[in-house]
Design brief:
Blueprint (H helix, E strand, L loop, with lengths): L1 H28 L3 E5 L6 E10 L7 E7 L7 E4 L7 E15 L2 E17 L4 E10 L6 E3 L1 E6 L4 E4 L16 E3 L17 E2 L1 H10 L14 H27 L1
Antiparallel strand pairs: 1-2, 2-7, 3-6, 3-9, 4-7, 5-6, 8-11, 9-10, 11-12
């Protein structure tokens, strides 16, 4: 009987450990992410969508600022009111004009700030920016996001991991872009999802588009796989102990 109680105790510890693994994996997904349609270098009439989670409950998100890549200007960035927020766009003048869909452009957006709304509880809200033209000849764009809460906290999603390093706590959202179709008549409609900085750099170095999981890579699924395996083993052990106890 003592052996049976010890087995049940061990099973409880195992299930608790599995729960921690799965919970940790879910927490790791809660990042600001970005996707685009179409996600092709040099594409025109592009829709950028940022997904912003509220992570400081009971505080609520009251303002979000999206900072554009300074070294790769995006042409014609505009935004409309959404999710109860109103957008304000800040621009800068370029010393050297960049190509736009209608000719050279010398004025580009540096950031778009959404304010006046609320993201509460565990909610996540999408914020859409329209872009006239993405820069050509690039494989990845790194954005920065500043998220302000009602308690005064400002979370800066600006960290970029060094090569081979683990993902930082507040990673900057990175958009991976496909190369334009080789044929003039070809249609490039690939859609990129948010990806971790290290995966984006690897993609750029290899010049080969990657398929990533919704949170930016295969790695975050590993904790779920481990957690699932632990839970399965624990359930099998529990059934074995019940059969054994019934035979005694």
């Amino acid at each position: 009987m003592n052996h049976h109680r010890n087995g049940i105790r061990a099973l409880t510890v195992t299930l608790a450990a599995a729960g921690l693994v799965v919970a940790g994996a879910l927490t790791a997904w809660a990042h600001v992410e970005v996707e685009a349609e179409p996600a092709v270098a040099g594409a025109t009439d592009v829709t950028l969508t940022f997904h912003v989670p509220n992570e400081e409950a009971p505080a609520v998100t009251t303002q979000v600022t999206f900072v554009m890549p300074s070294d790769q200007p995006l042409v014609g960035v505009t935004a409309k009111p959404q999710n109860g927020f109103r957008p304000t766009t800040t621009s800068r003048h370029l010393a050297v004009a960049v190509p736009g869909s209608g000719g050279p452009v010398s004025e580009v957006a540096t950031q778009v700030t959404f304010s006046g709304g609320r993201i509460a509880g565990k909610d996540e809200k999408p914020f859409v920016l329209n872009v006239d033209k993405l820069p050509a000849g690039v494989r990845a764009l790194t954005f920065k996001v500043l998220q302000q809460y009602s308690n005064g906290t400002i979370v800066s999603w600006i960290e970029v991991a060094a090569d081979g390093a683990a993902e930082p706590e507040h990673p900057a959202p990175v958009l991976t872009l496909a190369a334009p179709a080789a044929s003039p008549s070809g249609s490039a409609t690939a859609t990129a999802t948010a990806t971790s900085p290290e995966n984006a750099r690897a993609t750029a170095a290899q010049a080969v588009p990657q398929t990533s999981s919704p949170d930016g890579g295969g790695a975050p699924w590993a904790p779920l796989a481990v957690g699932g395996a632990v839970v399965a083993a624990a359930v099998a052990a529990f059934l074995f102990l019940r059969r054994r106890a019934g035979q005694q």
